[in-house]
Write a structure and sequence with these properties.
The protein is of the alpha/beta class. About 30% of the residues lie in helices and about 25% in strands. It has helices at about 5-10, 15-20, 90-95, 110-115, 170-195, 200-205, and strands spanning about 35, 40-50, 70-85, 100-105, 120-125, 135-140, 145, 150, 155-160, 165. Strands 1, 2, 3, 4, 5, 6, 9 and 10 form an eight-stranded mixed beta sheet that branches. It has a two-stranded antiparallel ribbon with strand order 7-8.
Length: about 220
């Protein structure tokens, strides 16, 4: 069991994003959203980089056999929205393999079938046009980016209805501890409000306004 991943599974993207703001690391993947609400993913990144086809006509998805259960497939297709890099066959296969989910800097397709197999996908949208003969995999488990956020193999990927964030594995313990404290404080605020305190009082009592303040 990956204890650090298990800790992040108990958190949401908002408190983790706040924690990373506090230590000055950009982590929020802009424009990537869940294909369907109600999903949550958390796992180590298995990265895939795509490039436009030219003289090279490589494959578009054979990397999937190398992904370990519990990992999150992170695909850098440079935000392309004119061709897809993930569809129903890959989603069904990934689900059967126990892969945690897929995050795409680009688009996916076969939405009805994807929803039916209940496999979590986060992308910049969807489109039916195949990526075959348009893009190809030119790197696996290499550094990639998601909307300008760097992702390295083994980084922690967390996604929920609010979006996706990337936690560098070298800062994982630090980020988890800060995020857990933020989550506790927010729960304390809600409890104080239930007990009759005003929002202003509850925030003052818990130091709310300093939770996300960048460490100097």
């Amino acid at each position: 069991m990956d204890n650090l991943v298990e800790r992040f599974k108990k958190l949401d993207t908002t408190c983790v994003s706040d924690a990373m703001d506090k230590i000055g690391i950009e982590c929020s993947v802009y424009g990537v959203k869940p294909v369907h609400f109600g999903w949550k993913i958390c796992g180590r990144a298995f990265t895939v980089h795509y490039a436009p086809c030219g003289a090279v006509q490589g494959n578009v998805g054979d990397f999937l056999d190398d992904v370990e259960p519990g990992q999150v497939v992170v695909i850098d297709n440079a935000g392309r929205d004119n061709c897809t890099v993930w569809g129903d066959i890959m989603a069904k296969t990934a689900g059967k393999m126990g892969i945690a989910g897929t995050v795409i800097d680009g688009v996916c397709r076969d939405i009805p079938a994807v929803l039916a197999c209940d496999y979590p996908i986060y992308s910049k949208g969807y489109y039916m046009r195949t990526g075959k003969d348009r893009v190809y995999v030119d790197g696996v488990n290499v550094p990639v980016t998601l909307s300008d956020i760097p992702v390295y193999p083994g980084d922690i990927i967390l996604g929920d209805d609010s979006g996706v964030i990337v936690v560098p594995q070298k800062r994982g313990e630090e980020v988890a501890a800060i995020a857990e404290n933020i989550d506790r404080k927010e729960q304390e605020i809600l409890k104080l409000i239930e007990e009759g305190h005003t929002l202003k009082e509850a925030r003052a009592m818990t130091g709310y306004h300093y939770l996300q303040t960048k460490v100097q």
